[in-house]
TrEMBL record:
<dbReference type="InterPro" id="IPR003607">
    <property type="entry name" value="HD/PDEase_dom"/>
</dbReference>
<dbReference type="Pfam" id="PF01966">
    <property type="entry name" value="HD"/>
</dbReference>
<dbReference type="InterPro" id="IPR012340">
    <property type="entry name" value="NA-bd_OB-fold"/>
</dbReference>
<keyword id="KW-0378">Hydrolase</keyword>
<protein>
    <submittedName>
        <fullName>CMP-binding protein</fullName>
    </submittedName>
</protein>
<dbReference type="InterPro" id="IPR006674">
    <property type="entry name" value="HD_domain"/>
</dbReference>
<dbReference type="GO" id="GO:0016787">
    <property type="term" value="F:hydrolase activity"/>
</dbReference>
<dbReference type="InterPro" id="IPR050798">
    <property type="entry name" value="YhaM_exoribonuc/phosphodiest"/>
</dbReference>
<dbReference type="GO" id="GO:0031125">
    <property type="term" value="P:rRNA 3'-end processing"/>
</dbReference>
<feature type="domain" description="HD">
    <location>
        <begin position="165"/>
        <end position="293"/>
    </location>
</feature>
Amino acid sequence: MRKINELNNTISSTDLVVRIEKVIISTATNGSSYIILNLSDKTGRIEARKWTVTEEDKQLLQPNAFVLFKNAAVNEFRGVLQLKVSDYSVVSENDLNSYGLDVKDFFIEAPINIEKNYGELMSILESLTNQTYKELTIGLIKKYEKEFLTYPAAMSIHHNVKGGLFWHSFTLVKNALALKPSYAYASIDWELLICGAILHDIGKVIEIIDPTGTDYSLQGKIIGHISIGNTELNKIAEELNLYKDEQGNINESLTLLQHMIIASHGKKEYGSPTEPVIIEALMLSMFDDLDAKVFKINDELNKVELKTWTPRIISVDGKMFYKHKK
């Protein structure tokens, strides 16, 4: 039984067991329906199409279903491998072992030691001198610790893997720490930048419905992770009695952390309620944009052959990228 990363354009057909990540029902020019399936195992992802669709197919081919495809045709379209599927059977979770497989074989995981790096992150937070930043950030990630460590950072745009939210957030923290010596001359609150990097996407623990990242929750669809994250930060500030200072004024450190979240997409047209007006928020939005684009471009490069081009990547200005290196 082949894995997804073992497929190439020299294979005409194959049998494989995969997990369905996403299902799209589409309509052909002749008016008939067909199904687009986003498939995965722990080695990678591939898109498949089933051109003849029945009502039974629509019931059986659902997100998170494990499916055995037999004699799936391997095709190449614009340099990207695709499958044409017809003969299939749904495999129950209990029956995976009959194929020598386990549930964990169908989820791509962040390529880092999350437990070790989470310990490192907590050590960084414990060393902070700004008590508001420290208590709010620790309080919020502890509140959603399980989700923070296991959820993807998005459904498709970037870091859509198990543990992707932590991986992405911790990468931004490491980027900030790496640049700190080079910008020692600048008036930068590095503790604010670190905490903003950790919290900027915390709303995704509510925006995304579950660790598999197959859909958005109702709150995610109608509110979005930025507003959710800002609300959660306010709530934890109230719970920890950090919303106002001793004079009854709204805690300025809280306000700065809120700005880090709501300005994290950089521009209003990219979904930020406000644009960065402090240097740390500008830096965070640039780190965030860079990390998302590097992940997405690399993910698409992994799907094409050497010396060929990726398809146009919508989230990177619709550009195609050339694969010059394995």
